[in-house]
Design goal:
This protein is mainly α and 150 residues long. It has one domain. Helix content is 81%, strand content 0%. Helix 2 crosses helix 3, helix 3 packs parallel to helix 6 and helix 6 runs antiparallel to helix 7. The termini are far apart. The mean pLDDT is 87. This is Stage V sporulation protein AC. Pfam families: SpoVAC_SpoVAEB. Keywords: Membrane, Transmembrane, Transmembrane helix.
């Protein structure tokens, strides 16, 4: 007796859907919220330290950004940020430390290919589109602001 190809495909689809793990959406959202919030708390703590030293708010914010990018890059370099990201998910991607991770991780991965074709060429593979669309959208918003709000 010959089994039809359609029945085999249908059975395979049913079997594969039943065997794949169910997503833990609520748990993942809670982890992202808590760990992303902790990252933001660290940023606020650093900002408060700069303010306590008498830096103006804008300069303190700039230094906080620099410090958070450094922390994200450093933690990526020593292999800790990936472990945080495994638990936090989007909570580790959204803050600026996630941007630092997206620049440093490919650079580390392709270091063996050399500085030009490895590090320099691959450094912005993930962060590049973010920069392009971020800068492009800011230019568009700036033009709209200039012509319609000003």
């Amino acid at each position: 007796m010959k089994v039809s190809e359609e029945k085999v495909k249908r059975d395979f689809k049913t079997l594969s859907q039943n065997s794949k793990p169910k997503p833990k959406i609520v748990k993942n959202c809670i982890n992202a919220f808590i760990i992303g919030g902790l990252i933001c708390d660290v940023g606020q703590f650093i900002s408060n330290i700069f303010m306590s030293f008498g830096f103006p708010k804008e300069i303190g914010a700039n230094y906080t950004t620099i410090a958070m990018v450094f922390i994200g890059a450093f933690l990526t370099g020593i292999g800790v940020y990936d472990k945080i990201a495994n638990v936090a998910g989007a909570g580790s991607i959204v803050p600026i430390t996630g941007f630092a991770n997206s620049v440093v991780a490919p650079a580390i991965e392709f270091k063996k290919e050399g500085f030009v074709f490895g590090v320099a060429a691959k450094m912005f593979t993930i962060a590049g589109p973010v920069l392009v669309y971020g800068i492009g959208s800011s230019v568009i918003v700036g033009i709209i602001y200039y012509f319609f709000v000003k």
